[in-house]
Structure formats: structure tokens, C-alpha cells
Specification:
Elements lengths: L3 H19 L18 H20 L1 H13 L4 H10 L3 H21 L5 E2 L6 E2 H22 L10 H10 L1 H6 L10 E6 L5 E4 L6 E6 H8 L11 E3 L1 H9 L18
Parallel strand pairs: 3-5
Antiparallel strand pairs: 1-2, 3-4, 5-6
Helix pairs in contact: 1-5, 1-6, 2-3, 2-4, 2-5, 2-6, 6-7, 7-9
Organism: Kutzneria albida DSM 43870
InterPro entries: CHP03084 (IPR017518), DinB/YfiT-like (IPR034660), Maleyloyr_isom (IPR017517), MDMPI_metal-binding (IPR024344), tRNA_wybutosine-synth (IPR013917)
Pfam families: MDMPI_N, Wyosine_form
Length: 263
């Protein structure tokens, strides 16, 4: 059974770590371009605040979320950028305060969702645990963009396990959004956590295998590093094809990063 209390505590901690990256910045630094094309620091935080607000709507006001979903469907390729652009126009202090407020409300709302309920989303409905895991993944990924913007090395934590988990769970999705049938062959994933603990998914005897540092795998599935720059060992044709398209986040295929961009 999922430890929801621990999961939500990890979401709170991940958000606080990203908050600490941007809180000391000057107004000019909030306008600095990040590795995401066309997005400044302000766009990154605005996106996190907007997505947390959509999750809050899903947990507390399904009708309001349905309206937001219809608006997104009317502009499926541009609604995310438009929301980030709108939020980025706020003064930095106001934007940061907004994100702090909405993410706090989200944690409270997720704790109150009745056990077993599913939350509507832009894809299939999600359990509270899946929603919290997805929010950890996205918060961590955008935090990586912010850290890269300022050349900051973040100390990896055990929270990476949540990012890795959703990276493994989205294997089939990664093939589908790139126009391929999800493979029937299983893939064994063996990752070394920051403290040396081995994290595993899939059958131990699977012919297709991926292994290496958890940080590297998380950077790959969130498309924050190019595969050539990572220390991942791959065997098997299915595993090799998966790592070429791996994507833990929703939406159309991402462009990823260029090889050597952060060498």
C-alpha cells in the first residue's frame, strides 16, 4: 500500500527545494532564459503554479477542472505555453507567493480526497498517489532547468525514486506518442539511488535491461539530458528503442536536450 503521507511530504520537500532556488533571485534574474526554449525563470515557476492549480481544481472542483480541460482541448499545442506566459507577466514576488499558496492548498486538498477516488486529469483519471508522484516528477524536472540556468548542482535525494517510478510506468506511453505500438517484452530497470540502494522494476530475468545511476535515468526520462551524456547501460532492442523516446511527462513528444549541452 502506498504511503500517502510520505509521498505528500516528499512533494512538499521537492517544492521547497525549488522554491529555495528562486526565492533569492533579483527581478532581472527572473527574466533569465532557461534551457527550455522561450521560457525564462518566471515561465518555469508560472508553469508549476498553473499545473498545481489544475491539480487543485481536479481534487476540489471537478466541474471547474472540466471547464479548464475544454479550454485546453481548444488549443492542445499551445495552452501550456500560454498559461506560462500569462503567469510570467506577474511581478516575481507575486508569482512566487501565488505558487506557495496554491501548492499549500493542493497538499491540503490531496490529503482530504477519499481513499480510492480518482481525480480527473488531461489524460486518464489519476489516483491521489499517482497525482502526487506526477507533481514530484514535474517539480523536480523544472527544478533541474532552474539549477542548470544558474550552474547549480543539486544534491540528489531519495525522492528521485518517485521520478524513476513514473519514468518506468510511462514506457508504453513513450512509444505511443511517437507513433509506435508499446512492446510486449518486459524491461528490467536497475538503478542505484543516491545512498547506494538498488531500486528495481520488471522481471529479474528480462532480456531487455537498463541500469545505472538513478539520477541519470531521471534526467533521461524527463528529457533534461541527452542520452549520450548519461551513464546508463542498455541491453536489448526494446530497451534501446525505449531510451530513444523515453518521456515521463504528458503531452506531445518533447525535443529534449542536445548532446554535450551540459557537459
Amino acid at each position: 500500500m502506498t504511503d500517502l503521507t510520505g509521498l505528500l511530504a516528499d512533494l512538499e520537500a521537492e517544492s521547497a527545494e525549488v522554491d529555495a532556488l528562486v526565492a533569492p533571485l533579483s527581478a532581472d534574474q527572473w527574466q533569465r532564459p532557461t534551457p527550455a526554449a522561450g521560457w525564462t525563470v518566471a515561465h518555469q515557476v508560472a508553469h508549476l503554479a498553473w499545473t498545481d492549480r489544475q491539480a487543485l481544481l481536479a481534487a476540489t472542483n471537478p466541474g471547474g477542472f472540466a471547464e479548464a480541460l475544454n479550454q485546453a482541448l481548444a488549443n492542445p499545442t499551445g495552452f501550456v505555453d500560454e498559461a506560462a506566459e500569462a503567469g510570467a507577466q506577474l511581478p516575481p514576488a507575486e508569482l512566487l507567493a501565488d505558487w506557495r499558496s496554491v501548492r499549500g492548498e493542493l497538499l491540503t486538498a490531496l490529503r482530504a480526497v477519499p481513499a480510492g477516488d480518482k481525480l480527473p486529469w488531461f489524460g486518464p483519471p489519476m489516483s491521489v498517489a499517482s497525482m502526487a508522484t506526477a507533481r514530484i516528477m514535474e517539480t523536480w524536472a523544472h527544478g533541474q532547468d532552474l539549477a542548470d540556468t544558474f550552474g547549480i548542482h543539486r544534491q540528489p535525494t531519495a525522492r528521485l525514486r518517485h521520478v524513476a517510478h513514473i519514468g518506468v510506468r510511462t514506457l508504453g506511453f513513450s512509444f505511443q506518442i511517437n507513433g509506435s505500438e508499446p512492446p510486449s517484452e518486459p524491461v528490467r530497470v536497475e538503478l542505484t539511488g543516491p545512498d547506494g540502494t538498488l531500486w528495481t522494476w520488471g522481471p529479474a530475468d528480462a532480456a531487455n535491461r537498463v541500469s545505472g545511476p538513478a539520477l541519470d535515468f531521471c534526467q533521461l526520462v524527463t528529457q533534461r539530458r541527452h542520452r549520450d551524456d548519461l551513464r546508463l547501460l542498455v541491453s536489448g532492442e526494446v530497451a534501446d528503442r525505449w531510451l530513444a523516446v523515453a518521456q515521463a511527462f504528458a503531452g506531445p513528444p518533447g525535443a529534449g536536450r542536445k548532446a554535450g549541452e551540459f557537459a
